[in-house]
Amino acid sequence: MAEQVWDYCAEALAQAGLRHLFGMTAEGDGLLEAADRHPELVAIPARDQRGAGFMAAGYAVAGERPAGLAASMGPGNPNQNVEPSRSLS
């Protein structure tokens, strides 16, 4: 398969030190799928956008490591942005 823009994004995240990316599958953006293909990243799918936010926040707090969150555009976006930002305070 030919490389896509999302593959370059996944590579940039890996080079920055990210190892785990949370998000919903089939959201149409392809970042989670690109992370799944990347040898240094672990893609962790969720069934619900808010759940992905909680999972990323919990991972970041418990592991004291950054966690990536693949957010989609639209009305579900605040669900994904609120929880991780609260865990950083």
Describe this structure in words.
Helix content is 49%, strand content 15%. It is α/β, with parallel strands linked by helices. The protein has a single domain (5-87), classed as 3-Layer(aba) Sandwich (Rossmann fold). It has a three-stranded parallel β-sheet with strand order 2-1-3, sandwiched between helices. It starts with a helix and ends with a helix. The mean pLDDT is 81.
Write the layout of secondary structure elements.
Layout: H1 5-15, E1 20-24, H2 31-37, E2 42-46, H3 49-63, E3 68-70, H4 77-87
Parallel strand pairs: 1-2, 1-3
Helix pairs in contact: 1-2, 3-4
Features:
three-stranded parallel β-sheet, Rossmann fold, alpha/beta, 49% helix
Indicate the low-confidence ranges by residue numbers: none
List the total number of helices.
Answer: 4
State the CATH architecture.
3-Layer(aba) Sandwich
Overall strand count: 3
Strand order of the largest sheet: 2-1-3
Tell me the CATH topology.
Rossmann fold
Judging from the principal axes of the Cα atoms, what is the shape?
globular
Radius of gyration over all CA atoms, rounded: 12 Å
